UniProtKB/TrEMBL annotation:
Span of domain Uroporphyrinogen decarboxylase (URO-D): 1-175
Pfam families the UniProt entry points to: URO-D (PF01208)
SUPFAM superfamilies the record matches: UROD/MetE-like
Designated name of the protein: Uroporphyrinogen decarboxylase (URO-D) domain-containing protein
Superkingdom classification of source: Eukaryota
GO molecular function, one term: uroporphyrinogen decarboxylase activity
Segment forming the signal sequence: 1-21
InterPro entries per UniProt: UROD/MetE-like_sf, Uroporphyrinogen_deCOase
Any one biological process term the GO annotation gives: porphyrin-containing compound biosynthetic process
Protein backbone atom coordinates (compact mmCIF):
# COMPACT_ATOMS: atom_id res chain seq x y z
CA UNK A 1 0.00 0.00 0.00
CA UNK A 2 2.90 2.39 0.67
CA UNK A 3 3.84 2.00 -2.99
CA UNK A 4 0.44 1.62 -4.64
CA UNK A 5 -1.77 3.90 -2.52
CA UNK A 6 0.43 6.00 -0.24
CA UNK A 7 -2.27 8.65 0.27
CA UNK A 8 -4.64 5.98 1.63
CA UNK A 9 -1.98 4.55 3.92
CA UNK A 10 -1.05 8.00 5.25
CA UNK A 11 -4.70 8.72 6.05
CA UNK A 12 -5.10 5.34 7.76
CA UNK A 13 -1.92 5.72 9.81
CA UNK A 14 -2.86 9.27 10.83
CA UNK A 15 -6.27 8.02 11.97
CA UNK A 16 -4.70 5.15 13.91
CA UNK A 17 -2.12 7.45 15.53
CA UNK A 18 -4.87 9.77 16.75
CA UNK A 19 -6.94 6.88 18.10
CA UNK A 20 -3.92 5.34 19.86
CA UNK A 21 -2.92 8.70 21.34
CA UNK A 22 -6.46 9.33 22.58
CA UNK A 23 -6.57 5.85 24.11
CA UNK A 24 -3.17 6.32 25.78
CA UNK A 25 -4.38 9.60 27.30
CA UNK A 26 -7.53 7.81 28.52
CA UNK A 27 -5.34 5.12 30.10
CA UNK A 28 -3.31 7.74 31.98
CA UNK A 29 -6.45 9.56 33.08
CA UNK A 30 -7.73 6.19 34.34
CA UNK A 31 -4.63 5.57 36.45
CA UNK A 32 -1.84 4.26 34.20
CA UNK A 33 1.54 5.49 35.40
CA UNK A 34 3.47 4.68 32.23
CA UNK A 35 2.62 4.03 28.57
CA UNK A 36 4.48 1.62 26.31
CA UNK A 37 4.12 1.94 22.55
CA UNK A 38 4.66 -1.29 20.65
CA UNK A 39 5.71 -0.94 17.02
CA UNK A 40 5.61 -4.71 16.66
CA UNK A 41 6.45 -4.84 12.97
CA UNK A 42 8.65 -1.74 12.77
CA UNK A 43 11.79 -3.85 12.78
CA UNK A 44 10.67 -5.45 9.53
CA UNK A 45 11.00 -2.11 7.76
CA UNK A 46 14.25 -0.71 6.43
CA UNK A 47 15.41 2.34 8.38
CA UNK A 48 14.39 4.60 5.47
CA UNK A 49 10.91 3.07 5.29
CA UNK A 50 10.53 3.26 9.08
CA UNK A 51 11.36 6.98 8.93
CA UNK A 52 8.49 7.48 6.46
CA UNK A 53 5.86 4.97 7.54
CA UNK A 54 6.23 4.62 11.29
CA UNK A 55 8.27 7.32 13.00
CA UNK A 56 6.03 10.31 12.15
CA UNK A 57 3.00 8.53 13.61
CA UNK A 58 4.87 7.47 16.74
CA UNK A 59 6.03 11.07 17.16
CA UNK A 60 2.41 12.21 16.86
CA UNK A 61 1.34 9.78 19.61
CA UNK A 62 4.24 10.91 21.81
CA UNK A 63 3.48 14.58 21.23
CA UNK A 64 -0.20 14.19 22.10
CA UNK A 65 0.43 12.15 25.25
CA UNK A 66 3.20 14.46 26.47
CA UNK A 67 1.08 17.56 25.91
CA UNK A 68 -2.00 16.17 27.64
CA UNK A 69 -0.25 14.05 30.31
CA UNK A 70 3.08 15.73 31.08
CA UNK A 71 5.33 13.68 33.30
CA UNK A 72 3.99 10.33 32.12
CA UNK A 73 6.93 8.17 31.05
CA UNK A 74 6.68 6.80 27.52
CA UNK A 75 8.43 3.60 26.42
CA UNK A 76 8.93 2.58 22.78
CA UNK A 77 9.51 -1.07 21.90
CA UNK A 78 10.18 -2.29 18.38
CA UNK A 79 10.81 -5.97 17.83
CA UNK A 80 13.98 -6.29 15.74
CA UNK A 81 15.09 -2.76 16.58
CA UNK A 82 18.87 -3.08 16.27
CA UNK A 83 18.99 -1.03 13.08
CA UNK A 84 16.68 1.66 14.45
CA UNK A 85 17.99 2.52 17.92
CA UNK A 86 19.30 5.99 17.18
CA UNK A 87 16.20 6.78 15.14
CA UNK A 88 13.96 5.61 17.99
CA UNK A 89 15.64 8.10 20.29
CA UNK A 90 14.42 10.92 18.04
CA UNK A 91 10.75 10.07 18.71
CA UNK A 92 10.77 11.86 22.07
CA UNK A 93 10.09 8.81 24.25
CA UNK A 94 11.69 8.49 27.67
CA UNK A 95 12.66 4.82 27.47
CA UNK A 96 13.70 2.58 24.59
CA UNK A 97 12.99 -1.13 24.90
CA UNK A 98 15.77 -3.31 23.52
CA UNK A 99 14.90 -6.71 22.17
CA UNK A 100 17.09 -9.69 23.00
CA UNK A 101 19.04 -9.46 19.72
CA UNK A 102 20.67 -6.16 20.76
CA UNK A 103 23.63 -6.45 23.10
CA UNK A 104 22.75 -4.32 26.13
CA UNK A 105 26.25 -2.80 26.38
CA UNK A 106 26.20 -1.91 22.68
CA UNK A 107 22.66 -0.54 22.91
CA UNK A 108 23.57 1.60 25.90
CA UNK A 109 26.69 2.89 24.11
CA UNK A 110 24.68 3.74 20.99
CA UNK A 111 21.88 5.46 22.90
CA UNK A 112 23.90 7.13 25.64
CA UNK A 113 22.87 7.60 29.26
CA UNK A 114 20.49 10.52 28.75
CA UNK A 115 17.71 8.11 27.77
CA UNK A 116 16.59 5.08 29.75
CA UNK A 117 16.54 1.55 28.38
CA UNK A 118 14.33 -1.46 28.99
CA UNK A 119 15.16 -5.12 28.53
CA UNK A 120 16.67 -7.31 27.45
CA UNK A 121 17.20 -10.80 28.83
CA UNK A 122 16.77 -13.34 26.05
CA UNK A 123 13.49 -15.19 26.78
CA UNK A 124 15.19 -18.45 25.80
CA UNK A 125 17.40 -18.13 28.91
CA UNK A 126 14.34 -19.06 30.97
CA UNK A 127 14.77 -22.62 29.68
CA UNK A 128 18.27 -22.86 31.21
CA UNK A 129 19.21 -23.92 34.73
CA UNK A 130 18.38 -21.29 37.36
CA UNK A 131 22.03 -20.25 38.00
CA UNK A 132 22.42 -19.43 34.28
CA UNK A 133 19.32 -17.24 34.47
CA UNK A 134 20.79 -15.43 37.47
CA UNK A 135 24.08 -14.87 35.65
CA UNK A 136 22.30 -13.47 32.59
CA UNK A 137 20.19 -11.10 34.69
CA UNK A 138 23.35 -9.79 36.38
CA UNK A 139 25.14 -9.44 33.03
CA UNK A 140 22.28 -7.42 31.52
CA UNK A 141 22.00 -5.17 34.60
CA UNK A 142 25.75 -4.54 34.61
CA UNK A 143 25.79 -3.73 30.91
CA UNK A 144 22.85 -1.33 31.27
CA UNK A 145 24.64 0.72 33.90
CA UNK A 146 23.67 2.03 37.30
CA UNK A 147 20.76 4.28 36.25
CA UNK A 148 17.94 4.43 33.77
CA UNK A 149 17.27 0.74 33.23
CA UNK A 150 14.06 -1.27 33.47
CA UNK A 151 14.96 -4.95 33.68
CA UNK A 152 12.73 -7.03 31.47
CA UNK A 153 12.82 -9.80 28.94
CA UNK A 154 13.87 -8.80 25.46
CA UNK A 155 10.44 -9.98 24.29
CA UNK A 156 7.59 -11.95 25.83
CA UNK A 157 7.65 -15.21 27.72
CA UNK A 158 7.86 -18.09 25.25
CA UNK A 159 5.28 -20.87 25.14
CA UNK A 160 6.37 -23.75 27.35
CA UNK A 161 8.61 -21.64 29.58
CA UNK A 162 8.84 -23.32 32.99
CA UNK A 163 6.88 -21.36 35.57
CA UNK A 164 9.65 -21.82 38.13
CA UNK A 165 12.03 -20.03 35.75
CA UNK A 166 9.67 -17.06 35.48
CA UNK A 167 9.33 -16.99 39.28
CA UNK A 168 13.13 -17.15 39.57
CA UNK A 169 13.49 -14.22 37.16
CA UNK A 170 11.25 -12.12 39.41
CA UNK A 171 12.90 -13.30 42.61
CA UNK A 172 16.38 -12.41 41.35
CA UNK A 173 15.14 -9.09 40.00
CA UNK A 174 13.49 -8.15 43.29
CA UNK A 175 16.66 -9.08 45.20
CA UNK A 176 18.92 -6.74 43.23
CA UNK A 177 20.45 -3.89 45.22
CA UNK A 178 20.70 -0.86 42.98
CA UNK A 179 22.53 1.18 45.59
CA UNK A 180 25.62 -0.96 44.91
CA UNK A 181 26.94 -2.51 41.70
CA UNK A 182 25.75 -6.04 41.00
CA UNK A 183 28.46 -8.45 42.10
CA UNK A 184 28.98 -11.05 39.47
CA UNK A 185 31.86 -12.85 37.81
CA UNK A 186 30.69 -11.61 34.41
CA UNK A 187 31.33 -7.92 35.12
CA UNK A 188 34.75 -8.02 33.50
CA UNK A 189 33.33 -9.63 30.36
CA UNK A 190 30.74 -6.87 30.01
CA UNK A 191 33.22 -3.98 30.13
Amino acid sequence: MCHTAPHVLRALLAHLAKAIADYAVYQVESGAHCIQIFDSWGGQLSPAMWEIWSKPYIKEIVSTVKSKCPGTPLVLYINGNGGLLERMKDTGVDVIGLDWTVDMADGRKRLGHEISVQGNVDPAYLFLPLPAITDEIHRVVNCAGPRGHILNLGHGVLVGTPEEAVAHFFDVTKSLNFAAPVQDHLVAAAT
